Each structure stands twice: as C-alpha cells, then as structure tokens.
Amino acid sequence: MTNDAIKDVVMIGAGPSALTAAVYTTREDIDTTLYEKAAVGGLAAITDMVDNYPGFPDGIEGMTLASQLEKQAERFGAKIEYGDVSAVRVEDGMKVITVDGKDVKAKAVLIATGSDYGKIGVPGEAEYYARGVHYCATCDGAFYRDRPIAVVGGGNSAVQESIFLTRFASHIDLLVRSTIKASEVLQHDLKEYIDSGKITIHLHTTTDEIVGADGKISTVKVTENGQPREIAVDGVFVFVGLKPNTGFLGGTGIELDELGLIKTDQKLQTNLPGVFASGDVRSGATMQIASAVGEGATAALSIREYLEALDKK
Amino acid sequence: MTNDAIKDVVMIGAGPSALTAAVYTTREDIDTTLYEKAAVGGLAAITDMVDNYPGFPDGIEGMTLASQLEKQAERFGAKIEYGDVSAVRVEDGMKVITVDGKDVKAKAVLIATGSDYGKIGVPGEAEYYARGVHYCATCDGAFYRDRPIAVVGGGNSAVQESIFLTRFASHIDLLVRSTIKASEVLQHDLKEYIDSGKITIHLHTTTDEIVGADGKISTVKVTENGQPREIAVDGVFVFVGLKPNTGFLGGTGIELDELGLIKTDQKLQTNLPGVFASGDVRSGATMQIASAVGEGATAALSIREYLEALDKK
Question: Are residues A150 and A232 in the same domain?
Fold first, then answer.
C-alpha cells in the first residue's frame, strides 16, 4: 500500500464534524484531505453567536469557533482544499471521489457535508441571518425570552418548534402559506396555545419581507388573505424543511432515510464499507455543533479501525 | 405536575457529558440538578493537557476545560451538588434516586457517571497521572513521538494499544504480569512488532514503581522472572481494564453490556423509559471528551422530548 496517488482518508465537507475527525486522524499520522465547496466551518461559521457549544461559558462567535477548529485540524497536518465533489463510487474496494471533475482515490471516505435549512427567499432573510432570522429553535430560541417573534411554516417542525418557542417568546405569530399540514396530534397540542392567546395563527399568509434597522429586525411584512399587513416582531424563525447536502450521492447506492439523510450503523459507517458519515448529514442528526463534533471523533476512531484492518489484508 | 418536590431532571455525575446536557436543559428552563461524588469535570478535570477537544487549537488544560464547562452549565441555572448516589429505582413511572441515603424524585434521569481506568496501584502511578502515566493511547499517544515508553497489561486492549502506540513511540517495553491473554489475531499481529524489535515483551513481570524527577518520568522498576530491574522510559501506559461507574445500578434492571457499560438506544435512552445514559459509562463509549459532550447534547434533546410527552399525559 505505498501508492502515493491513493490517499488514506478523504473527508467531504469541512464543517465542525469533519474538522474534528481530521484532528483525530492527522494526530495519528493518517493522511487526511478535506474538500470544501463553500465555507470552512459550515453553518457554524455563519452563526452569529454560539451559546451552547461546551467549553465556552460566555458563548463564542460562530466564525471564531470555525477558525479555531480549522487551525486545530491544520496544526496536526490536515489538508483543506476547496473543491466541489460531484460523485463518490467504489471500485474494487477503493473509493473514488470526483472533485471538480477529477478523480481522487482514497482508502476511506467521511461524508460530512451537513444540511442546509430551507429558505423562504425574501428580502431581509439573508441580511438578518442569525441576527434576527433563525432556523434552529434549540440553538437560538433562548435569545428571545419575553420578546415577540414570528414563525414561518405550516408543517410538523414549524408547529412543534412554535410550541417549544412559547417557553421563551412573549407571543408568536405563526405564518402559514396555505393551511397547517402538521400531524393531528401536533394540531391538537397547538390549539391549546391558540386558545390561550400565546400563538396567533395566520393561514393563507405569505411572508414578503423582513424589515429592520440598525442590525435588528422590527417588522415582518406579510400578505394575509390577499391583504398586506405588517407585524412587529423581534425575530423570525423559519421552518420550511431541511436540505441534506447529499445531491452528489445519486447512484452510489448509499442508503438514505426518508428525509434524505445518510443512514449509518453505531460506528457511523454507511452501508458501503469504508464510507462513513457524521454530523448534520447523518440520519438522526440533532443539528447541534456539540453532536457533530462528537460524531466526528467517533467516526475518526472507526476510520482508524477500518484502515488498520485494511492494511492487514 | 406542580409538585415542587419532584425535580424535572436529575443527572448523576458532573463530567463533560452531564455538564453539556445541563447547558441544554437549563437553557430551556428545565429544572436540572447534578449529583457529583468526586470532582466536577470527571476525568477531564484531572487530565494535564487536552489536545484534541475541538475548539482549542493549542490544546487546553483539563482543569480549565472542566471549570469552563461547569461555569457554562451554572450560567443557565444548573444546580451542581455533591452527593453519593447509591440507588436508582422507578416507582409508578417516577424516578427515585437515593443520594447520601435520602430519596430524591425526578421525572427523568441522566446517568453520566463515566468509567475509571483500572490502576496498578504502585508508587508513582498517582503522582505522575497524566504527566507520564497514561491510560488512553488515543488521547496521549501523540505526546510520545520518537520517545521510549512502557505499556503495562497483557489483555486485548494492552496488545492492541501497544501496536497502535508503535506509530509514535521509538520503542515499547510491554510489561505482562503473567502471560499474554489477548486474542490469537492480536498475538499474531504483535509478533511482527516483536520481530522488528519495536516492541520488547516482558512476561512474568510485575511493575513495582514508576520513578521520576522534576515532574517527569525516567524509569520504571520491575521484577522480571523474580529479578529486579530498571527500564528507562519517558512514559508508561497502563491498560488493565476499565471500571464503569455503575455499581449503584444493582437491582434497577438497567441493561448493561458484557463490559458493564449501560446499553442505550439511538436516543440514548436505557431500557427504563425516562432513564438516559451518555458519555464514558455508555456502551460503545469512545472515552473521548468530544464524544461525551456530543452525547450530552443528544441526551438533553431526548430528555426534553420525553418530558414534553410526559406533561401531556
């Protein structure tokens, strides 16, 4: 196994999960290359303040955390390259990864491409990302204690997270494009909050613009039953689906769950031997940096074990 | 459910996993009490330098990391109390935890008591803990690049970790009290390293003392086949078993694996509804802070879900 053209491990993505895995593999002298098509650090890098990543009692800026993870992986020798992975296939046990149209060979692969939150695509949404517009109630709900917010969406997660957010927000306007699509159970639970006045539901309502000033949100402009109106809020939470970054896996035969997330076993190996997955792209992901990082460490130990067994053959 | 005497969540142990879980639960206003019988921060707190906890590119002292985790949990309202938990039982769905002889009631329990490394109990072992005497090759092996070390033990993990440590150490003296008890496969693998001179094996050898000066190890004193001798090493790795802190679970009916670690499902729930486990005490644990922390976050989300379902009843 001295073919220099064959890498030990290729990691697809360079968010917290892959960067952690790379700290572990490179610290053990396992040759590791990460391919990232957008920003190193993943969603963490574009998060304003991370309050619940363990080890930083006063919180840490997402960008700072991302750059520290990058530095740590590079300290032990991880190679982080920009490149768009369009395909992964297995040939005679060797993993072949197509990066920017060229084939790269590796003994093992970690898929840690994460998931993106579904966007509504309205003015103000990108501008106030993570500073008023949020996609994760667990992460950012606590920033809205006793403050009015809006929630956009009408499916299971929009209803579930609205109910969860009532423990923080003073009031929630739930903006639903058509009608509520959530399960009967959730709709039943929701009714209680509507009755108590904690949640006001707006059906047949499109969200048109998120308006703010001085870096803060003040208003969300909507069209409710054909009539334009403005609702004063401090924050907007959007729950219109999750988009796992698995488009490049078509044809690989890697098993996905019903949400399009990658299925793994306890060791975080997919159904293809030597191909592992961790973080937000994995089935069962919590969309939490702490979990992504933990899975990165676990995946790295599994990868080491896989490589050791391979080298013995 | 307004009985003040019933706590929402009791966490047993206050290491990285429980402290992380507590950051999550308390940030969501879930009343959380942790009981710790020894040191807050668990094994992390007594680790000299943690090099692979993600987010600290230059490493962080274990004690500093532990105190930052503690601060973070307390910032959101976690109550950390010293107390020895001797039993857990379930009565009509309510969890009853015996702390210092008194019963405490809770709706949900997280067991995060960790595991301790088996000790050999010789002079110098405690004194040089984490500063020359180590119990985790993944954690500390990389500190011994091109340096001579000794490994104590003769079972599967001692042999496996010795082989792993050859990627760092210049030479390994493997100190085996009687004979090698590892699997045939591992013994076969080991032979290759003995033949190449990378590992020297000492059978019927007791480790008597770890000797050092100026805070560094210089020598390990052994008795080999009845003869005393000294071996010059920079570090000693001890692999004589893992002791999960599950002694208090006798009679609870909580399922353990063959190593005595607690079995859980994907949501980190044990076979008892409402009783969860995370970190080093859980079956499949990697003994890595990153993984323990990730599981803490995941367990907290599962606990929230459990409590929400409970409150609806």
Answer: yes
